[in-house]
Design goal:
The chain is mainly alpha-helical. 76% of the residues lie in helices and 2% in strands. It has one domain (3-299): ABC transporter involved in vitamin B12 uptake, BtuC (Orthogonal Bundle). Strands 1-2 form a two-stranded antiparallel sheet. Helix 1 (3-29) packs parallel to helix 6, helix 1 (3-29) packs across helix 10 and helix 6 (130-152) packs antiparallel against helix 11 (235-257). The protein is globular and about 65 Å long. The model has no long low-confidence stretch (mean pLDDT 89).
């Protein structure tokens, strides 16, 4: 695999590291099966692209993309908390609605950004090729997002959110406003996903209505892979593991598609994704079975 392909995989892996952090909040911290991700990812791309082509600076456009994602996540949480709609169904409804919302925002299926300024073109000095500089900036963004999350989950509000996901009945008995925690967590989760969508659009040269398809699968795969290779109960390690999982996932994809002897092509991407997710799901079961076998052997 060439250096260009390697850095490209790292770049996309870092962007989906932000997605995996968002998925971690909803699926692991809140225990909320959130499919809004498939809509909030292109939502962030759409909002950022529209603002950029209309003359706003890319940083403001990216900020508005995050706010749009936060609103989408908040509405999903509101459907569940206030209207008592089942969490999974609420997220499906929001995901479906966002398809039309994204088309309405863009006004057409895609918006090119090839000739427009981006956060990368304005932030990077140009000493190195783009395919090296972009991952360096993304590393900084992901580290900042991770450290902010680590800090937040150590605060009173963050601990209340973790308690809400672990045992909502106990959390309520301790005076935690679980509904508020769900609303805040869903907003934070989808803000991170929308940020990833905005950065993805600016690295790929445009926003497209279909770019969010399968985002939730990639996010879950990153979380599961990360938890399998770096199991821990410490939030610092957990957030690090999902980022590593996202990067490894993209490396596996790039390796599979760039290995001529395997015979895979770009149209096999969904097949490779399904195989990798299946392996990631089965791996923890195999590890637990192996541990039980070792314990049984020692006892006998």
């Amino acid at each position: 695999m060439s250096l260009f392909s390697l850095m490209g995989a790292l770049e996309i892996g870092l962007i989906f590291g932000l997605v995996s952090l968002g998925v971690l909040i909803s699926f692991r911290v809140l225990r909320f099966p959130d499919l809004t991700v498939d809509g909030s990812f292109p939502l962030g791309a759409a909002v950022a692209a529209v603002f950029i082509v209309n003359g706003f600076d890319p940083f403001t456009a990216t900020l508005f993309a995050m706010l749009a994602g936060a609103v989408a996540g908040f509405i999903t949480g509101w459907l569940n908390v206030s209207l008592r709609i089942m969490d999974l169904l609420a997220s499906i409804l929001m995901m479906i609605a966002l398809y039309s919302v994204n088309l309405r925002i863009m006004g057409r299926p895609n918006i090119p950004l090839i000739m427009e300024p981006t956060v990368f073109s304005l932030s990077l000095p140009g000493w190195f090729p783009d395919y090296i500089e972009r991952p360096l900036l993304l590393v900084l963004v992901v580290i900042v997002a991770k450290l902010v999350l680590d800090w937040y989950f150590s605060t009173r509000s963050g601990l209340a959110m973790r308690a809400t996901g672990s045992n909502p009945r106990m959390a309520r008995s301790q005076g935690v406003a679980t509904g508020r925690s769900i609303l805040g967590g869903m907003a934070l989760s989808n803000a991170l996903v929308a940020l990833a969508g905005a950065l993805f659009a600016q690295t790929q040269g445009g926003a497209d209505i279909s770019m969010g398809i399968g985002t939730i699968v990639i996010g879950l795969a990153a979380v599961i892979i990360g938890e399998s290779i770096m199991p821990s109960r410490r939030m610092f390690i957990i957030t690090l593991s999902v980022i590593v999982g996202a990067i490894l996932y993209r490396f596996f994809i790039a390796l599979a598609l760039n290995s001529d002897f395997i015979g895979l092509h770009a149209q096999d991407l969904n097949l490779v994704t399904a195989v990798l997710v299946t392996i990631a799901l089965v791996l923890p079961l195999i590890k637990r079975k192996f541990k039980r076998t070792k314990v049984s052997a020692k006892e006998s």
